[in-house]
Design goal:
Blueprint lengths: L1 E10 L3 H13 L4 E4 L6 H11 L3 E5 L24 H10 L4 H17 L7 E3 L7 H14 L21 H21 L8 E2 L9 H10 L3 E7 L13 H10 L2 H9 L2 E4 L1 H7 L1
Parallel strand pairs: 1-2, 1-6, 1-7, 2-3, 3-4, 5-6
Helix pairs in contact: 1-2, 1-8, 4-5, 5-6
Length: about 280
């Protein structure tokens, strides 16, 4: 039996990205969504997600935008702005930052989501920062302390021989190197996490053909498929035409038919954690 959580990341990042995510939830195969608590479109996205009754997690973020709690020594600049993906990885690898301040920020992001009337069913991390040893414990400890029973396991499920060329290929080398230790720590936390994460190798390349092939090859187990649908959001990062291709693939009626033929059971983090 295949149980599959199809999770759309980055809700709250912009109106057109959000519109595509909502469409994929209402008309496609998306079953779960991750919300950016410090995203520029957070308030509007949270309101619509509540109206739709979306299963939601918190897309914890230490790399983009402004911290909700202000300046964090060694992590933000003097205005409280996060450092971006590359610099965050350098900081986490070095470990020279205010870990307690980062923990407070993550708790504040979770609290903001709850204050919007949402009961989150899982935590995951923007740009997979949980993979770094300096951050893994921050997230697992937060989940346990706050009664969140499920986490994303950022362990690439695809065969590494099929990894794409750089720059994404270089990212996957990093993910595959760090993922085993992070995965073991997640298991030690006694929290639910799927067996692995599909879609990491298909970033910006998930179209109808690629999605069909992925669903065809997926083995038995409990898995998560990470997706990034949306419409083009001019002037905003990560909002180009590849987002529309994902939206069209995820809402294509052929995908629902293939899922039925493969006896794939679409589910959520909350449902899986309850059965864990």
């Amino acid at each position: 039996m295949i149980q599959l959580i199809v999770n759309a990341d980055d809700l709250g990042s912009g109106p057109e990205r959000d519109r595509g995510i909502f469409r994929c939830f209402e008309q496609g195969i998306v079953t779960s969504v991750s919300l950016l608590a410090n995203g520029p479109h957070f308030a509007e996205a949270a309101c619509e997600a509540v109206r739709l009754g979306m299963p939601l997690g918190v897309h914890l973020n230490l790399s983009e935008g402004r911290a909700l709690t202000g300046v964090i020594a060694g992590l933000t600049d003097a205005a409280g702005e996060f450092p971006g993906k590359a610099d965050l990885r350098r900081i986490l690898a070095g470990g020279d930052f205010d870990a307690a301040g980062a923990r407070r920020e993550l708790a504040a992001q979770l609290d903001r989501v709850r204050q919007a009337g949402i009961v989150p069913d899982h935590l995951d991390s923007h740009q997979h920062f949980i993979l770094f040893p300096a951050a893994t414990g921050l997230v697992t400890d937060l989940a346990r302390a706050e009664g969140i029973n499920a986490l994303r396991r950022p362990l690439p499920a695809e065969d590494p021989r099929r990894d794409p060329p750089p720059p994404l290929g270089d990212e996957l080398v990093l993910y595959r190197r760090l993922a085993p230790a992070a995965s073991a720590q997640i298991d030690a936390s006694a929290l639910f996490a799927p067996q692995g994460l599909w879609g990491m190798t298909l970033l910006d390349r998930l179209d109808k053909q690629a999605l069909s092939a992925l669903l065809e090859e997926m083995p038995d187990g409990v898995w998560e498929l990470m997706v990034h649908p949306g419409y083009c959001d001019l002037g905003r990062p990560f909002s180009g035409p590849e987002r529309l291709r994902e939206t069209l693939a995820l809402t294509n009626p052929c995908m629902s038919q293939l899922i039925r033929e493969k006896n794939i059971f679409l589910t959520t983090f909350g449902a899986c954690a309850c059965a864990f």
